[in-house]
């Protein structure tokens, strides 16, 4: 396979601590996958287990995501930190981390419990709720996917005044077609 390089090396994230910061602080990861040459994307909430260098998410027991991963466990993942539009520059501020991975669904109860612990620990702030959710988890009914991560690459565009600018949401745009296309 052809090796590619980042063309804007000034935007490359090379510090492993910064890459892990993006990974740990974001809520969603987009997973690219394919079955029989047909691509598919799924965005999931996730948690990262640094000791195992593995990402975990849980999902419904059946569905398209499950079918595609079971047919082809090779995936590509991206985590994006949206820092908002840069006024006057027609540009966007962000940090992103990408990596190849191998996805598999686990049926091992110990790994499922560990994965759910990592996920709940990341998402849930209330310690009592954490204990309750783990105690109530029916391991037979939950589907847990583990993605073993390959090498991370990171890219960022913090903009000219990143320290002063706060993240902003994009302005609402009209979804109506131009009059000539209606």
Structure description:
It is a single chain. This protein has helices at 16-25, 64-71, 109-123, 127-136; strands spanning 12-13, 28-35, 38-45, 47-49, 54-59, 74-86, 91-106, 143-149, 153-157. With 182 residues, the protein is of the alpha+beta class. It has a single domain (9-159), classed as Electron Transport, Fmn-binding Protein, Chain A (Pnp Oxidase, Chain A). Strands 1, 2, 3, 4, 5, 6, 7, 8 and 9 form a nine-stranded antiparallel sheet that branches. A hairpin with a 4-residue loop joins β4 and β5 (54-59). α3 (109-123) packs antiparallel against α4. It starts with 11 loop residues before the first strand and ends in a 25-residue tail after the last strand. The model is unreliable at 163-179 (pLDDT under 50).
What would a concise description of this structure say?
The chain is an alpha+beta fold and 182 residues long. The chain contains 4 helices and 9 strands; from the N terminus they run E-H-E-E-E-E-H-E-E-H-H-E-E. Strands 1, 2, 3, 4, 5, 6, 7, 8 and 9 form a 9-stranded antiparallel β-sheet that branches.
Helix/strand order: EHEEEEHEEHHEE
Query: How many domain units?
Result: 1
SS class:
alpha+beta
Give the number of helices: 4
Q: What percentage of amino acids are in beta strands?
A: 35-45%
Low-confidence stretches: 163-179
- Work out the oligomeric state of the chains in this entry: single chain
Q: Using the coordinates above, name the CATH class.
A: Mainly Beta
Give average pLDDT, whole number. 86
Provide key terms for this protein.
9 strands; 24% helix; globular
């Amino acid at each position: 396979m052809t090796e590619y390089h980042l063309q804007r090396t000034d935007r490359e994230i090379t510090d492993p601590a910064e890459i892990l910061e993006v990974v740990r602080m974001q809520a969603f990861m987009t997973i690219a996958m394919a079955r029989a040459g047909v691509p598919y994307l799924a965005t999931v909430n996730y948690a990262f287990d640094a000791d195992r260098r593995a990402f975990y998410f849980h999902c419904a027991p059946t569905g398209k995501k499950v079918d595609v991963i079971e047919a082809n466990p090779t995936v590509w993942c991206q985590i994006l930190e949206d820092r908002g539009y840069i006024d006057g520059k027609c540009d966007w501020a962000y940090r992103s981390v990408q990596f190849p991975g191998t996805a598999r669904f686990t049926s091992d109860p110990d790994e499922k419990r560990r994965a759910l612990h990592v996920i709940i620990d990341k998402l849930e702030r209330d310690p009592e709720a954490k204990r309750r959710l783990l105690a109530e988890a029916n391991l037979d009914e939950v589907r847990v996917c583990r993605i073993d991560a390959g090498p991370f690459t990171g890219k960022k565009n913090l903009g000219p005044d990143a320290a002063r600018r706060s993240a902003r949401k994009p302005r609402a745009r009209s979804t109506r077609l131009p009059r000539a296309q209606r």
